[in-house]
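User: Let's play a game. I give you a shape written as tokens, and you guess the letters that built it. Ready? Here's round one.
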């Protein structure tokens, strides 16, 4: 090991000089960045309850479900959209952990860091996995938050497991009541649209996800300022999902009818949706869900896309916090 109390015997190498310049440049920019990004209040010292930051539970069928559990206080759970994972919620989780909440999010089976089973890749299975996480951590009086497919997961959880452990619910750009067009849902999207998604996955899922990201965040709209980093992030998360699991999930989020589940909501519910959602059209989802859920409060973001948790993060966080404290 080099004695750092003595100067090196040889001159500084070109590589060391470059690294030194880079480090100095980064350091010079840190004060301004820190000033701009300083949180409203510091993270609690017990942000992980003294537990490992990475944890898993094992469900009855042997599937390992990854979850993260940050902060202390009233509980908020998060169910992510297809084909992402719990990291998609980090902007909300960090914010709420900083504001006195305990936040828990899991990777859906077949997605992210959870294992990739060949069974129960449907809404009943997803809801039961959410129940397994809630029961394993003994979460009570929780607010269940779901985005897109995750909103369907929350709805089916309440439909199957009730609200004995639930205080409130939030559906963000969520798929309920039902996406696919049928005789009873003539405003829905034709089955051919979902067949095209499946075909895209099989042909070249990597390119399919890159193309989907543009619509997901509205980056294909004039004047969009969505960063390349956000688009790359979507691709990275999507590629972590198993092909079989992502493929089967398309049927789950598009063809499952959540109408009866929504009618069972008996807790305060917030519905958030972007009016320019190209993935889950607002008129056939949030507008209908808000009518089916007794006493639901609905908020619509003009011109906003499907991925509002990222593109409108500050606004979503503010609306969540206000609802949680109400």
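Assistant: Ready! My guess for every position:
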């Amino acid at each position: 090991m080099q004695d750092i109390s003595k100067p090196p015997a040889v001159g500084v190498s070109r590589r060391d000089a470059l690294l030194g310049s880079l480090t100095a440049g980064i350091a010079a920019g840190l004060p301004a960045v820190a000033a701009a990004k300083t949180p409203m209040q510091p993270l609690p010292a017990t942000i992980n309850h003294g537990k490992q930051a990475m944890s898993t539970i094992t469900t009855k069928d042997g599937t390992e479900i990854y979850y993260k559990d940050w902060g202390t206080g009233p509980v908020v759970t998060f169910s992510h959209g297809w084909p992402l994972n719990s990291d998609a919620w980090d902007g909300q989780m960090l914010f709420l952990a900083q504001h006195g909440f305990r936040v828990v999010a899991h990777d859906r089976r077949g997605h992210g860091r959870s294992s990739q089973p060949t069974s129960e890749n449907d809404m009943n299975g997803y809801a039961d996995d959410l129940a397994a996480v809630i029961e394993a951590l003994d979460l009570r009086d929780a607010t269940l938050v779901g985005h897109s497919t995750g909103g369907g997961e929350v709805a089916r959880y309440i439909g199957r497991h009730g609200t004995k452990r639930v205080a409130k619910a939030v559906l963000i750009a969520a798929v309920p009541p039902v996406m696919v067009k049928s005789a009873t849902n003539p405003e829905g999207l034709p089955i051919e649209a979902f067949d095209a998604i499946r075909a895209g996955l099989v042909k070249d899922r990597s390119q399919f996800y890159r193309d989907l990201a543009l619509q997901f965040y509205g980056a294909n709209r004039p004047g969009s300022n969505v960063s390349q980093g956000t688009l790359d992030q979507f691709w990275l998360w999507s590629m972590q999902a198993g092909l079989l699991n992502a493929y089967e999930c398309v049927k789950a989020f598009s063809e499952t009818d959540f109408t009866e589940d929504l009618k069972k909501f008996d807790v305060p519910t917030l519905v958030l949706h972007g009016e320019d959602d190209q993935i889950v059209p607002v008129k056939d989802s949030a507008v209908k869900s808000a009518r089916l859920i007794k006493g639901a409060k609905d908020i619509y973001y003009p011109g906003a896309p499907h991925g509002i948790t990222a593109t409108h993060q500050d606004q979503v966080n503010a609306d969540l916090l206000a609802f949680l404290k109400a």
